[in-house]
Amino acid sequence: MRSEKPSAEPGAPVAAGMIPLSVPFLGGREWEYVKECLDTNFVSSVGPFVDRFERELAARVGAAHAVAAVNGTAALHVALRVAGVRADDEVLVSTLTFIAPVNAIRYLGAVPVFIDAEPEHLMMDVGTVAEYLTRDCVRRNGSTYNRKTGRRVAAIVPVHILGHPVDMDAILALTEGSGIAVVEDATESLGSLYKGRAVGTIGDIGCFSFNGNKLITTGGGGMLVTNNERLARHAKYLTTQAKDDAVEFIHGEVGYNYRLTNVLAAIGCAQLERLDDHIASKLATAARYDAAFAEVPGIRTPIVAPWAKSVQWLFTVLVDRDEFGIGSRELMGVLQEQGIQSRPLWQPMHLSPSQADLPRRGCPVAERLNRDALSLPCSVGMTREDQERVVQAIMAVAPGARARSRRFPLRAG
Ligand SMILES: *Cc1c(COP(=O)(O)O)cnc(C)c1O
Prior knowledge:
Elements: H1 30-40, H2 48-61, E1 65-69, H3 72-82, E2 90-94, H4 100-107, E3 111-115, H5 126-136, E4 137-140, E5 143-146, E6 153-157, H6 168-175, E7 181-185, E8 193-194, E9 197-198, E10 205-209, E11 222-226, H7 229-239, E12 243-245, E13 250-251, H8 262-273, H9 275-293, E14 299-300, E15 308-309, E16 316-319, H10 321-324, H11 328-337, H12 364-372, E17 373-375, H13 384-397, H14 401-407
Parallel strand pairs: 2-3, 2-6, 6-7, 7-10
Antiparallel strand pairs: 1-11, 4-5, 8-9, 8-15, 10-11, 12-13, 14-16, 16-17
The structure holds pyridoxal-5'-phosphate (PLP).
The site of pyridoxal-5'-phosphate has 14 residues, from helix 3 and helix 4.
């Protein structure tokens, strides 16, 4: 039931017959709910689906409050602001991430401090965070300051990339009593669990995205969740132009027009009803790939931490050029020729030209992961035939490929 003309996000439109990386799956009551918006004239940012989407998403992840936003980047922007991040503060953030949380930090005039990834699960390396906070920083009156720059460290943004959680207990232990707010970027990991708790609900605030390629989509949309009522109220206020008096147009702060519309929230409600099916589909594809590549030298499939339940949002392998014979970018080319879309991970933020004004910190693990990582097609609803095509295409170039591909398929996913 994939939409007839899937257009892959991110990146260029995918030609017909091509297997896209990750496209939306609109298989629930989306039409029905959108029709209800049009029939009732509730198309704008006031309407029952906005409230319902907030309520149901909060309930789903077990948060007390949720505030919808136009996209995940906007949610992060507001989350950081209500968490107290101001101009010239430092904010720790994963270097191996899509750029959105870094942009949000910079919108506030704050200074990102890029934290390397750990090589096992590819998440923010808590050892590097510990080293930074103990060696480079000092605590004074319940706040933390960078010894060299004198700047306050206002927040940390662990990014739960690819559907896998960051080690949050370590982050919480390191930041306890430090005055550092914990803002989780859970945009790629809706439904993932850290020691049984939903990611996004462990720090002070968590953010989700409903962009086209995420676990559930509203085309574009976002949400922040928190258990802190004051933060939630402030966030809602800021997303609606900080309006004190709607009749007289009195505004108490510089706010934003960041509210999600009722039409998009309607799609979100329908998508959220299918979240478990979407996760099941992602896990099935991951299991299929895991089984297929288990014995392929030079292909490392994702390692899920024992304390984690990953939703496997984007199935990403590491390609060891020496062992596999070709590197990740060459493999991407081979797949492209066979109508299969794949993608490297993001350029690490400490290398991004957009951050060239900041002092460089070495993040060697993220650089190696960027060189080796390749994300494979894993759209919700991906067929077994398509999975098989991807597997066969990779097996065909694997060392000793011919012998192995005759034995294929190894086992059911
Ligand atoms: C998708 C994403 C976001 C939010 O993106 P939007 O397109 O603004 O919804 C934020 N952080 C990460 C890591 C993401 O992958």
